[in-house]
Amino acid sequence: MAHGSRLVDLVHERIEDFLAERSSILRSISSDLEPLDAFSRRFLSGGKRFRALFCYWGWEAVRARGFDAYASDGESDRFPVVSAASALELFHAAALVHDDIIDSSDTRRGAPSAHRLFEQLHDDSGWAGSAPGFGRASAILLGDLLLGWSDELLDEGLSALPDRASARAARAEFVRMRTEVTAGQYLDVLEERAWLTKPDSEQRLRAERVIVYKAAKYSVEAPLTIGGAIAGATSAQLESLREFGLPLGIAYQLRDDLLGVFGDPDVTGKPSGDDLREGKRTVLIAIARERLAPGQRRLLDELLGDPELDAEQVGMLQSTIRQCGAVDEIERIIAEHVARATAVLAEAPLSRDARAELGSLAKAVTRRAH
């Protein structure tokens, strides 16, 4: 993972350079825009950088230059993929800002979410009008700004790519990802409200659809194929990256769903049971509903999505979900999807070193505690 650590450093440096250029534009407009600069840096300063890592290893899997070549590669050789990996981090930050508004989340990574930061700014400044209204409006604009910047950063990288066909292919993968994740986010919002009108028999399938488009493709599959396309991947190589990325992305999100219900707030940076208060209709909840007796299922339905759930109610729901066997089933599904993904690597037309690193990443993203 040493080269992965080096990539994280390169992505951090690329993001810092890019933000420095854009912040000069903001400052030239008005000093009142300083919060946009400060908050954008805040939301891009940390994170696990999994999407950036998958983008890089998708590139390396096709390029197949080997680890020894890494140190001797010039900056210009890495610039397109580092820029694309950095663009994915900006896109992710934009998605999180908007997601927190949609979910009315107070925190992100153990700190106030963007709309709460803007709300506090309004309160501290003594401005007129509604502080929550200002917070939401400003955070929407921050998310939009980050979204636009992610596109600019990607284009800067692709413009330096000599192979224009590869640049077009990478851009097409990015555009498709952007459409899919937006569609998946809408389906997620829809499920929280429309589930009552849908047959119980469809709820797991509908929850699985949300996972695929909101998370799996966007978190793992698309970063891999964007990196692969930059390196000039063949159709067979791209297909291998997809066959590895999709099941792994599903396992990644299923782990996230477990953390959203059972995660330690000191580790996840989110209140315990946050997904229960937000009413997330995940695969975990769909499985629990299939297994629960009618009375328990009705109680789950009544409490799920109540933002005022107290610790005792959260604990009761956690016990109900665990005792019905839903958690064990999710763990089994995660293991199956990881096995399916790693099996692809055995015969994939990808570099040996990258296949080994992707296997390690598969374990890291599905065994994490936050």
TrEMBL record:
Named cofactor requirement(s): Mg(2+)
GO biological process, one term: isoprenoid biosynthetic process
Keywords, in A-Z order: Magnesium, Metal-binding, Transferase
Molecular function GO labels: metal ion binding; prenyltransferase activity
Signal peptide: none
Top-rank taxon: Bacteria
PROSITE patterns reported for this sequence: POLYPRENYL_SYNTHASE_1 (PS00723), POLYPRENYL_SYNTHASE_2 (PS00444)
Keyword Magnesium belongs to the record: yes
Family statement drawn from the similarity comment of this UniProt entry: Belongs to the FPP/GGPP synthase family.
Protein name, as recorded: Polyprenyl synthetase family protein
